[in-house]
Amino acid sequence: MSREIVAPVPVARSAPKLRWRWSAADTVVASATGLIAIIVAVFAFLCWQGFGTTVSQADARVQTAAGIVASDVEWAIDAAFSYLTLAGDTPGDPAIRARTEAAVKTLPAGAVFGLYDADGQQEAGNPGTLPASIGTSDFFAALKGGAQTAIGRQMKDAATGAPLIVVARRLGGTRFGGVAVVAFPGDLLRMFWEPQKLGTDSNVNIHRDDGWMVGRYPPLAEPIDATKVSSSWAMISSTENGSYVARSPLDGVQRIVGFRHIRDLGLVVFATISLDAVLANLWNSIFIVSALLAPIALALFFGALLTAKLLRDSAKTQARLAAAVAQNEVLFREIHHRVKNNLQSVASLLQMQPIPREIKADMGQRIAAMSAVHEHIYRSNDFAQVRVKEYLTTLVENIRAGADPKVTVVTSLEDLAVDKDAATPLGLILNEVVANAFKHAFSDGREGRISVQLAHRGEEAQLTVEDNGVGFDPDLPAKGIGRRLIKALTAQLGGESGFSNTAGGGSRFVLTFPMAKLADAT
């Protein structure tokens, strides 16, 4: 009957997941990067804060400037209206005209006075500055229509074409008899603008409530209607004073604009400051600080990279050394394991030799003592030292296992660490002494006791083996090689050893060797 063989189905295994191992080098790079990020973030925050503070200060500055200029403009125009009342309601009166012209001379430098009849033709005044006719002007039409006072759009000097700020008053009482005019040169605003020290690309403007420009410094050749060019005019009209940021449609410069109304005169006064001029010092400071921080940040980053490289190289070196140490440990274990196996092979070969059984047993025990040392070494992680308590206990138990069961063995071994070169002589000495005690101390068949002790004695260590057997005379010549072997091994340890009889009739063996061969395990 045939049996079908079914091949096992291979189990699919997922690829091992790669795990990132965080190293000291990664910590250095991450810390440096984090520190640089913090520096950049703090610097960016300070720049943002500086920008806000600078703009806020400039905003307050232009609002203050607008208020000051508004006060100056209000004073000048109120003074002009006051002087125009001196012209009375009778145009052409030489006395009144002379008095008015004299009063106008007390106005700011450059102010001129003129009288115009009901048709807008000049009757008196300064024909070199004022136009000969104002019949088509907006303020003349307003006055002729019944308004008592009016402020005109910016006009031009008849001789030079320079801007003029015009203030006018109706003459003739209920019957329109003409117009009295005071004209200020547009340069008057320069005197109001200069003390404000608003910087490059700044200006001051006067507009009427209907949006038409009355005057500006630096001047414009033609007046403009702000309602047509400013998207903020609705806000300006409804707010007593304030500020905003806008890009000028005239020159494309972005400015912070402060304004203030003179409601009694129907005027709005503007003071502006260039945003670029305001931020110029801030940008300069940012550039200087950036120029200082950039090399520091780069030095920190590249220093971190260099340190990380050194750490990685060091880690690789340590890994190679650790691998070499691990490999050496494996080789040491393998060597001691092979030596132990070879000794066991020698012991097996010894048992096959045609020699007396007693000699075989003695040699086998000695070989087992040496083999036990190598077994203990390759099972431990320390190849320089041997912890003798476990090793010597194993030797004693092995000897006792094949000896008279009526004999009791008591051990008191301190847990010392012995140099590997001292472990084998110490084990062989103990093997010889304990084996001889089992063999000779109780030859009469009595029950006995063997005591084994290992302890510190000052700067030396002492191994003591004592029995309560029949005793022996240490002065008698030795029949075997045991005592000679003990003497040779004692010399190898650099110590002293000897046999003596106890008070109870048994024997005692004492081995003392220098602590230079020992290292306290505690």
Written overview of the protein:
- Strand 9 (241-247) and strand 10 form a beta hairpin.
- The longest helix is centred in the middle third of the chain and has 77 residues, at 275-351.
- It is rod-shaped and about 170 Å long.
- Helix 1 (24-84) packs antiparallel against helix 7, helix 8 runs antiparallel to helix 9 and helix 10 runs antiparallel to helix 11 (482-493).
- It has helices spanning 24-84, 94-104, 138-144, 188-193, 226-229, 233-238, 275-351, 357-379, 388-401, 420-441, 482-493; strands spanning 112-116, 122-125, 149-151, 155-156, 163-171, 178-185, 203-208, 213-217, 241-247, 254-262, 267-274, 385-387, 407-413, 416-419, 448-457, 460-467, 496-501, 507-514, 518-520.
- The chain has 522 residues and is α+β, with helices and mostly antiparallel strands.
- It has 11 helices and 19 strands.
- Strands 1, 2, 3, 4, 5 and 6 form a 6-stranded antiparallel beta sheet that branches. A 5-stranded antiparallel beta sheet has the order 8-7-11-10-9. Strands 13-15-16-18-17 form a 5-stranded mixed beta sheet, covered by helices on one side.
- It starts with 23 loop residues before the first helix and ends with a strand.
- The chain folds into 2 domains: 53-278, PAS domain (Beta-Lactamase, 2-Layer Sandwich); 380-520, Heat Shock Protein 90 (2-Layer Sandwich), CATH 3.30.565.
